[in-house]
Structure prediction request, 238 residues.
Amino acid sequence: QLQLQESGPGLVKPSETLSLTCSVSGGPTNTFYWSWVRQPPGKGLEWIGFVHYGGTTKYNPALQSRVSMSIDTSRNQLSLHLKSVTAADSATYYCARASVQEFSRGGGAFYYASDVWGQGITVTVSS
Amino acid sequence: QSVLTQPPSASGTPGQPITISCSGGSSNIGSNHVFWYQQFPGTAPKLLIYRTTQRPSGVPDRFSGSKSGTSASLAITGLRSEDEADYYCAAWDDTLSGFWVLGGGTKVTVL
Prediction:
């Protein structure tokens, strides 16, 4: 059974880089796409992006200039880095497998929906 | 502010049907499939409906999804107390090279 577990610091200072790891067990990371989603306290979900082990990434345009994702298949881990954080980046961060593949006729490209999620990690940005 | 518009709340008594709406635009719901997620307080979201109308294995058939034009709906027939949760719609948006957009969520209360 596939399981995902986020880890990282629960507190990050403003202007610094938020770095999270997602450990995957019960399945390899060299298949499918993998995504990150966040949820500010008391608010809705926001898609951050998804990544493929081959290096392909797609990010939320609102975060693209500050975010990077990668996969270490040898450790079966995903990584998320978000730089220059502010209080607005305080949220619960989820990693998820994005195995539901769809084709966008309008965009002429595939996209991937999240189906199995980690439990999430709460990160607060504060000095 | 969310790209997809959902009512913030919906409620019903056990056994009643309820419907949650999700309004978008031509570049998201109008062009692509709609997905729905269910989230209980303090837990991760769970995929409830994919490809607009499909249910993953294990999701009760009292949950159903539909779409018309640039709007989608999630229907729950035979509401049960354990359905009390937050529900989010999501769709791929074709603008800006493509990205996921989501609704603000609808809190379902079982009276």
Remarks:
- The CA atoms of residues 42 and 89 of chain A lie 13 Å apart.
- Chain A touches chain B through 26 residues (CB under 8 Å).
